[in-house]
Design brief:
Layout (H helix, E strand, L loop, with lengths): L3 H19 L4 H18 L7 H4 L6 E2 L7 E4 L9 E6 L3 E13 L3 E8 L5 E6 L11 E5 L8 E2 L2 E5 L33 E2 L4
Antiparallel strand pairs: 1-10, 2-9, 3-4, 4-5, 5-6, 6-7, 8-9
Helix pairs in contact: 1-2
């Protein structure tokens, strides 16, 4: 099991990376920073989900070129039917998620926004789409409890699909990840963000 201090350092570095991204004026420049920063973490960090034996040869994540058409600043519909999900995981026990809103992405569909009910809490926005090139279990857009936060408020939340990344379990089955459910699944393909690759 990865040492707690390694996980703490990973989260700090992710939070710092996203803070730098939010400070950049051009989203495409922030995206380039994100790709480089994530690759550095995936290749070298002790808490990387890439198996240790494969890190030295890991080529980096397969990420599509930035496309501004997939960046949205949307209002969160907060008047939604309450729902709580209990997600059992192999390592973290039962993780509670509470639906706190819904967002509409023009020409793509709607997604539920969740509040992760662990200590301190955080926003969680997973997404699954119909593209054959993305991880079948879905990807994450926002996971603020772990620092993945593109900014905004409830009336103008930044949802940039170019930053969609696959969860740790896509790299190694030893990791347990909550995945996107039916209300976080789009019928349309999302050809941007991280694509799935066998390592």
């Amino acid at each position: 099991m990865t040492a707690a201090w390694d996980v703490l350092d990973w989260r700090r570095r992710v939070a710092t990376l996203y803070s730098s991204i939010r400070a950049v004026a051009e989203p495409a420049d922030g995206h380039a920073m994100w790709v480089a920063g994530r690759d550095e973490l995936l290749r070298t960090h002790p808490a990387s989900p890439v198996p240790i034996a494969q890190r030295a040869a890991y080529p980096g994540a397969d990420v599509a070129s930035y496309d501004s058409a997939f960046r949205f600043v949307v209002e969160v519909e907060v008047d939604v039917e309450p729902e709580t999900r209990e997600v059992p995981t192999g390592t973290d026990g039962v993780v509670l998620f509470r639906r706190v809103g819904r967002i509409a992405l023009p020409e793509l569909g709607d997604l539920d926004l969740w509040w992760l009910g662990s200590y301190g809490g955080g926003l969680f926005l997973p997404i699954r789409d119909s593209s054959p090139d993305t991880y079948g279990g879905g990807r994450y857009l926002l996971d603020t409890i772990k620092g993945a936060d593109l900014g905004g408020e409830a009336d103008a939340l930044v949802v940039d699909l170019n930053f969609a990344y696959q969860p740790s379990c896509a790299y190694d089955e030893e990791w347990a990840c909550p995945l996107a459910g039916p209300t976080n699944t789009l019928d349309a393909p999302v050809p941007v963000g991280e694509r799935h690759q066998q390592i």
